[in-house]
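Worked example 2:
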Amino acid sequence: MTALFRKKQKEDLPDSTPYTKETMLTQIVMTLFAFLFIAPIIIILNYSFKSKKELYLGNPLSLPQSLNLDNYVKAYDKLNMKFTFINTFFYTACSVLILALLCGTTAWAIARCKKKFFQFAYIYFIIGILIPYQALFLPIYTIGYKMHLTNTRYGIIFMYVATGISFGVFLMNSFMNTVPLELEESARIDGCSVFKTYFVVVLPLLKPAMATLIVMQSFQIWNDYLLASLYVSKKQLKTLTVAIQSLFSAQSSDYTTAMAAIVISVLPIAVLFLFLQKYFIKGMTVGAVKG
């Protein structure tokens, strides 16, 4: 009886052979693309453990004879990471925190208020996204120089906030439309003020969007080189990426130490993404559907 029941089940199941072949082909193609993306990371890790002799005289793709940690010690000393790492972390954390607060409240006001001023404000932020990044260098530096913001910590933070707020408002506004308006109305009926309604009712629902904004802006600010080099010339204010550039020059380049420094600089952002990836993926999906 059991054998007949299993035979009946197999007959009822559709033929899945064509789908299996297509799935296998898709997996093969995606595996090749994944390897292409991960290959540079593997090469950087490989180089970071090699000595200069192994790098220049040996096969570039060969594995190191031993895990040479001297490159990481040299990177820490040459890049003065006691200051550059802390500077980069401070600029990134402060800028992202300010952006999260400003973009969330601004997007909430734009999404809930239908007056012409708020509609114009939303268009204004959208235009800010369309302006090429490089076109902002001269006016940003000119304004910063006249206001004595260059070579200052708060000037660098304001610069990152100014360049990232347009995208942040656009992202948060796309997600804000998914928040039920009835919850806010119920909160107002219960006597909540405007600030309490936002921070107690609305803000907890914006975790995916906030995580997406934090991850994307952290990537942008942590890895930024052009704006940081434009605004910073003092050695004690330099960021990690600006310091890494000093290892590459026309006369001599210390590639093994530079690769070790790159590995160190990537670790904090990788850890941040691992902690927030669940909310990040959800936020990107909602934004794609609603946008």
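Residues 255-290 form the longest helix (36 residues). The two ends are 55 Å apart (CA to CA).
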